[in-house]
Structures are given as C-alpha cells and as structure tokens.
Amino acid sequence: MNRRDAALRMIVALVLAAGATGCATRATLSPDAAAQSRPAPGSVLKSMTLDPAQEDRILALDPERVSDDDVRNTLASGPTPHVLLIHGGIFPVHLAMASLGRFLAKMGYPEAKIRDPRDRSWSMSPYESSADGAGQVAWYYERDGVRPMIVGHSQGGIQAVKILHELNGSFGTELHPYDREAGRIDPKTTIVDPLSGQERPVIGVSVAYVGVVGTGGLSLALPNHWIVAGRIRSIPDTVDEFVGYRIGLDLIAWDAPGLEGIKTFYPNGKATVRNVTLPAEYSHVLVPVTAGLADTPAMRAWINDYDPAATPAVAPPPDGDTANVLFAAEVWHSVKRHWVREAQRFVRAKRALPPG
Question: Which tens digits make up the pLDDT trace of 268-292?
Fold first, then answer.
C-alpha cells in the first residue's frame, strides 16, 4: 500500500470516527500533593553542575546556526527543555508522531526529554485536558528552569493552541501545576519561578516554541475542541515563537490554494508567528513520519544546515527519500533555536546567583 492509499484510508477512518471520539479527560486534584516539596528559590539553578567552559560554549552559540557538534557536545548535557508531542486523534495516527520523536532523538535531542515520563510513549493524546497540559508546562518549567516546547499534529495542533490559551487565562482565572508522572494535580495555583526565585501564578507561564501542522477542518467540529474554535488562529503571548504549517492541499484540514487568508495564524500580542506552506504532495496523516531522514549523514547534514531565512533559497536536499523533509528541517531548526535560547537564559540566571 503506497502513501496516498494510506492517507485515503485514514481520511475514511477520520470521517467514521469523528462522532465517536470522547471528551477531554483530566487528572483529579490530589489532597496529599499539598505536602510535596516545592523547589526552593535558586535550587534548580544550583542543582545543575556545569563547568565554566561548558557555560561559555553555551553562551557563545548562535541560535540560528547550531551544528551537530554543538548539539551533541554542548547542548545535550546542559539545560534541556521538555518537548511535548501531541498526536492526532484517530488510531493509529500516534505512530506518525512517534516517528517525529525518534527523528528528534536521532538528531541528538535527549530522548528522556521527549518521552512521556508516565508510560514512555512518544506523544500525548489530544483528548486529554488542556488545563492539565498547561499545568504540565508549568510543572516542567518550575523543575527544569527551561520552558517546554510543543509540536502538535492535526487535532494535536488544536490541543497545542488550547494549551496556549489556557496559559493566557482565556478559559479561567486559575490553573494548577500538573505532575504527569505521578498523575496528580497540585492544589496550588502558583509555581516558584526557577530563574527569578519569585512565586508566580501558573496563568501567564509561557512556552518557548509551538509548531502545529494540519490544524483545523473537520476536527474543529468535535465537542472537545469547541472551546477554541473561535480563536484557533489567534495566538496569545504565552509562546515566544509559533509556527503554523499548512499543507498546500489538505482535505482533512480543509486546506487548499486560495484559503490562505482564513487559514493564517496571527498574533494577538507580541508573539512571533510564522506561517509555512508545505508541498501539496505531503500527506496530512503522514507528515510527521520523519525518523528515516536522520539515518543518512548527507540528509542529516542538510537538515542541520537548513535555515528558513536563507537568501537565496536553500539548496535542494540530497538524493534519496525526501518525504516530509521540509517539515522535519523546519521543526528541527526551531527546536535547536529555542533550545539554545533557553539554555542561555538558564546559564545567565545561574551566573547571576549570589555567591554561597
């Protein structure tokens, strides 16, 4: 069965299953969570041992030009954000997002910072509570000192936008940190900011980078996404950079030439928002299938060198299977960029700590 046949089968599955998908589920508030230890001010910065030479190397990195050597010998052993992958909603489309997770790991991203700490899966369901997803962002930031990144596919992209609006306070005035590994919600609505040491609300915590692909269309008619249907293209300030990837012809996301005006993401504040159109031959279902691209040195080198702002345009990729290579290169460039920026923020805050 070829890629197009697989995509058509998944389209049929989506239509048949659209009415059968469940509503969002969420964890329960844990009374005993109140007694759990919260990081003391400055403890997260002090807990990571970095020698001055490594700190210097991190601070010297150019976020726009990060080599394979930079990744493996400087970044991978330093402060590393969690990358939250959110798959689409129809079984077995989660396997496509697992491929993206394996791609990132093969490119040098620490696997432990991608896999779910609860069950070691590569990605999360879009039917989980977006409030819990926002709480998970805050939980990781409080304990890692670097802000997470999110990549969402299809319904997972909708979920990613919902999480940004949750963090922005669009749906309520309180959010709780969520310990995903323990499966419990902290009754507090604040965290200790790991860089400033000050207590702050979960509302207002931000994400470093969000990328979504194949977002919109039929999926927005599902009840669990109604809350964000009117603002799915409006990106709040709870993310530094948001990139919306649309496929030139995408029957599932209801995307086609001429629809750019209504399918364009835009900031409703200061967030940086980019819109990228992927080739029309890309499949909505299979676009995250990218693991194999990291298997050959030539392709890996091309992806590492990719620069979306390059002028003139980047050279074509090397010969071989190039399916979804533009999506892979775009995501990897953004992940590296914000990995560097978050690590540099961490190092600067660590160096600013008072002695002792």
Answer: 999 999 999 999 999 999 999 999 9
Both tokens of 339, joined, read 């990995």
Q: Which among 179, 180, 202 is positioned nearest to 189, based on CA atoms?
A: 202
What is the spatial distance between Cα 318 and Cα 105, in angstroms, rounded to a whole number?
21
Q: Where are the domains of the chain?
A: 3-15+48-351
Q: Both tokens of residue 233?
A: 């293209």
Q: Return the CATH number of the domain spanning residue range 3-15+48-351.
A: 3.40.50.1820
Q: How much is the pTM? A: 0.90
d(CA 85, CA 100): 9
- Residue position matching structure tokens 């961490």: 346
Are 120 and 142 a contacting pair, CB within 8 Å?
Answer: no
Structure tokens at 146: 């670097």
What's the pLDDT tens digit per position in 122-161?
999 999 999 999 999 999 999 999 999 999 999 999 999 9
Element (H, E) at 284: none
What ranges in the chain are assigned the alpha helix state H?
3-17, 43-47, 52-60, 68-70, 94-106, 130-144, 155-167, 297-305, 325-351
First CA to last CA across the chain, in angstroms?
A: 64
